[in-house]
Amino acid sequence: MASSPPPAGRLRKAPENFVDASGVRQVFAEAKSGRRDFIRQAFAGAMAAGAASAAVAAPADGDPAILTLPEHSRGLGKPVATDGYGRPSRFEANVQRRPSPGLTQTAQSSVSFAPLQSLFGIVTPSGLHFERHHQGWWDVDPAQHRLMLTGSDAKMLKRPMVFTMDELMRLPSVSRFHFIECGANSGMEWGNVAVPTCQYTHGMLSCSEFTGVPLKLLLDMAGADTKRGRYLLAEGADGSSMTRTIPMELVESGEVFVAYGQNGEMLRPENGYPLRLVVPGVQGVSWVKYLRRLEVGDQPYATKDEAIHYVDLLPDGQHRQYSSTQECKSVITTPSGGQVLLDQGFYSISGLAWSGRGKVQKVDVSVDGGRSWKPARLQGPVMSKCLTRFSLDWVWDGKPTLIQSRAADDTGYVQPSTKQLRAVRGTRSIYHNNAVQTWLVQANGEVSNVQLS
Amino acid sequence: MASSPPPAGRLRKAPENFVDASGVRQVFAEAKSGRRDFIRQAFAGAMAAGAASAAVAAPADGDPAILTLPEHSRGLGKPVATDGYGRPSRFEANVQRRPSPGLTQTAQSSVSFAPLQSLFGIVTPSGLHFERHHQGWWDVDPAQHRLMLTGSDAKMLKRPMVFTMDELMRLPSVSRFHFIECGANSGMEWGNVAVPTCQYTHGMLSCSEFTGVPLKLLLDMAGADTKRGRYLLAEGADGSSMTRTIPMELVESGEVFVAYGQNGEMLRPENGYPLRLVVPGVQGVSWVKYLRRLEVGDQPYATKDEAIHYVDLLPDGQHRQYSSTQECKSVITTPSGGQVLLDQGFYSISGLAWSGRGKVQKVDVSVDGGRSWKPARLQGPVMSKCLTRFSLDWVWDGKPTLIQSRAADDTGYVQPSTKQLRAVRGTRSIYHNNAVQTWLVQANGEVSNVQLS
Lengths: 453, 453
Hints:
The structure is a homodimer.
Chain A: H1 21-29, H2 35-54, H3 64-67, E1 98-99, E2 111-113, E3 131-132, E4 146-151, E5 161-164, H4 165-170, E6 174-181, H5 198-202, E7 205-214, H6 215-222, E8 231-236, E9 243-247, H7 248-252, E10 257-262, E11 265-266, E12 276-278, E13 291-297, H8 304-307, E14 312-313, E15 319-320, E16 329-334, E17 345-354, E18 360-366, E19 374-375, E20 377-378, E21 388-396, E22 401-409, H9 418-425, E23 438-441, E24 447-450
Parallel strand pairs in A: 4-13
Antiparallel strand pairs in A: 1-2, 2-3, 4-5, 6-7, 7-10, 8-9, 8-13, 10-11, 10-12, 14-15, 16-17, 17-21, 18-19, 18-22, 20-21, 22-23, 23-24
Helix pairs in contact in A: 1-2
């Protein structure tokens, strides 16, 4: 499963049977005017081309073949609760999260990528949520799990506390939709490595409805001194001893919470079951999984995962530290690398935009390599520090085309081009690449990843 | 799996190990004032009671038992992509959708209920989405599936069309969060049958982010005469020949769409893969699964599933037909029937509210059997024809208590009491029961379903 090839995406080749394409073509040819007709006409061209290549023949009236109903229209199907916890269709078996063999030395300290090219809307199904483990994942017994609140000294937190999961789940909770992105997402693109699909370029990105207890409430209960204690250390229970510094101002904003729920159910084991920290807008490594301890302190902790890893190597050789916020970014997921356009004509360009600073304000799309831009439609509700789905109607004329998206957030920040980003950050970073992604649609319909620099 | 007992819910008994409850109790006892302290004090009482019954002893300093880390803090865990499509924790195996044996004569024409008592937020995980089949479910090959648009006569629709899934998925799409509720949800409660858990009282309810093509666009493309054609017939491809009439005004509102996506991925087979109709606010039976045909007509079709089934038997013996909109409704999911409160003290009462007419405006909660009501907090974003999560802080004093929720929507409609609803509708209906649900918390903490009439 883990070594099977990446999926070809949703723009499958048309099946060579049944559809009365000549009739439909005729229908489309009667198009009139306006946007609906723009779609109709553009679509008609595509379908005509498809029909020609597939050599579809309309069945004659009374052809016995079309009078035979498929089995599912005649027979008795499967009973309810065939599966008390259902699974996707067998026809969707290629929609999987996938590792990138060779990216890391071990599969326990590694990544699997979410298949963004196959997803719709903004919710990531929990079964396809990207993974990033530092010492493998565990299915931790929630009855044994504890969350401890402490201070770096006795005055920093008056009442050290230990919570069971049952105790946490009795407290007031919030449910919020947020994206989570690994700081290393799109990391390969810093150099001239153009990995083939958006699953690998941008797939360390997922979005869920998380549920949990506001951390502010827990710190209030424990009597944290947030005047002196301007930082928190978050520590995970797995063997990687993951520890990250969280600025107290993020907690005071009310946005940070300790989460047990994800997309309506308990967190998945790979995502930190039974408890993880949710730090909206901040890179995934700070969303500490298997969360077991929070310590209030008066300075950043400079732990191994913020001193050696998750730092940005700048052109002058210095490392930038604590650059934790995921800046505004977007990617076109359809069409995207590895997909094949069936034929020329109408397509709905669709993609995702997000910002760790707030709401997505605008997404522009270019179909000429960045020379001109058109505003995309944003699908509501547009939520803060959450994915936003955008789309744009497009007619492909069959010629090679460079397509790009560029997002801006409500702080006024605009996603940079690769060239702009490299001018400031160089090419030797791993982390925090939020440059505009470019896909090349070739004349044969194949889509590939190219870098414009 | 299908016959295992219903889950006990999330309010598990406290484990009898580790927690330094005496220390935590002391910590809580130092509470001061304000809402945080209300929670702290209330919670402290509960934990003290829990500690007493569990006879917890704080480990002595240096006790070797607490120096031994659990295996997951020492060892190497499982690799990434252990599962290309992940599953819930083994500790969540009791969270399942469940049938109600005996409710129907066959398991192919039956129901499985979503475990609302175990869910958070508003998204229903697709693996736990309720099921309602009329002749079993199928995993239909999307490459073979077609959607046909026709008219009841040649003038009703100028250009009959047949779409493949690939063609539909190339068109402009929308993604929207909506609830879906079976018209028969809470049907057993019309009489004096009080089924034990909210999984069975209200579990024919789910909520997803659906993605698909606005039906208005398809009808425009096909040249439907929506002046004469004020109705649509929606037909499914499974053996039940499900057919339902959809008023054209719902389509014209722009809200109705043909959906292929659910919570980010393709629909699940049990929920109509690869295509179903989404009719926000309307009972689930009209969200025709395995959607294969839409016909434009000039009058309601009075099909078997709207003439014999899904009609309301009124006190005077008449049947009410086409009462398809799901009126405003709510239910407390925590605490709810079948759960056991650990002990007295603080709880966060939590539940779901929804309306087929628009947005939930307000939810009131009563903890005295309806004599007095307090406004609950609504978790945003509050979306139209979508579930809304509500919550209220509550301190249980250990005495028998009746708890209820009552929702109102933005049309001004207020959810009726059982008494009010029965006064108009009698007691012999199956469908469209949106009465206030009452749970009894007994002195021993057990919660059960009771009817106040």
